[in-house]
Amino acid sequence: MTNSNASGSYDTGRLDLPFVGISTFGKRPYQADWTAIDADIAILGAPFDGGTQYRPGARFGPRSVREASTLFSFGHAGAYDHEDDTTYLPASVRIQDIGDADIVHTNTEKSHDNIEAGVRAILAAGALPVTIGGDHSVNIPCINAFDDQGEIHILQIDAHLDFVDERHGVRNGHGNPMRRAAEKPYITGLTQLGIRNVSSTAKDGYDAARDMGSDILSVRQMRALGPKATAKRIPKGARVYITIDIDGFCPSIAPGTGTPSHGGFLYYEVLEILQRVAKRHEIVGIDLVEVAPAYDPTDSTSILAAQVLLNLLGFIMHARDKR
After folding, report:
1. What are the pLDDT digits (tens) for 37-60?
2. Does the model's pTM come out above 0.70?
3. Residue 126 preceded by cis peptide, ω within 30
4. What is the architecture, at CATH level 2, of domain 23-322?
5. For the chain, what are the domain ranges?
6. Among candidates 170, 219, 217, which has minimal Cα distance to 192?
7. Is residue 200 within 8 Å of residue 53, measured between CB atoms?
């Protein structure tokens, strides 16, 4: 079927509106075979929230963020940004959605192993791994998968430090991932932004984080510095893994999360940091976690998550082309 337009020419094929079809990330192709990934970027869902200490529901994050991402399914022409006078994510950027890691209920170790296997498959294919959680514990298997990838620095956007060593025998919950990362010999340091208010980590956790190489800034401290100076705090030449907890944003714009903390970032504060880091550094991996859609009937949190990820991927691929 064809439809004429005002100029008398014709559109061919499907219009493929956001609400039509299967909700893969950005309406990009689905690749079920993890041995056949052929992409620049591969999206993995990690719908595990067994590490949650308060409100559950982040297991539905990957599904909700994928659905929200269809709003930004740009088609073949890419996404033109008039401020930057740049088209991001054109058809030449190959993105595949490889589905979800299998989650075994009540079994953190097995579920994390399955997530790690997905990230390793993406890395083996030479693609950029982008993992959508799930609670922040899914970062642990993501970072484990980089044990043969050389040295990396972690940029964390979060309300909470997540640097608890062990609590009542729990070492792999959503309050532990940055501590587990800092223990790795290939993690050269952490830049932790947005940390604020009463937190999941006691003072000894902050002391340990700084002793293990963390640079910690609150929202107010980052605002005082500005995005340019903040981005420069990441060591020059560092290869960077980015982990974004959606509660790093203010719950006034991201209420759909398990542990909201008021006084968080606004959209452009995070976006400007990410754009500068993508220009200055090689980005080796990304995860975005803690979207719990049941707490946000407007879907704004999921839309924010999808918008941040797609913009970040555009910045990364554009910077690669420029290099």
Report:
1. 999 999 999 999 999 999 999 999
2. yes
3. no
4. 3-Layer(aba) Sandwich (3.40)
5. 23-322
6. 217
7. yes
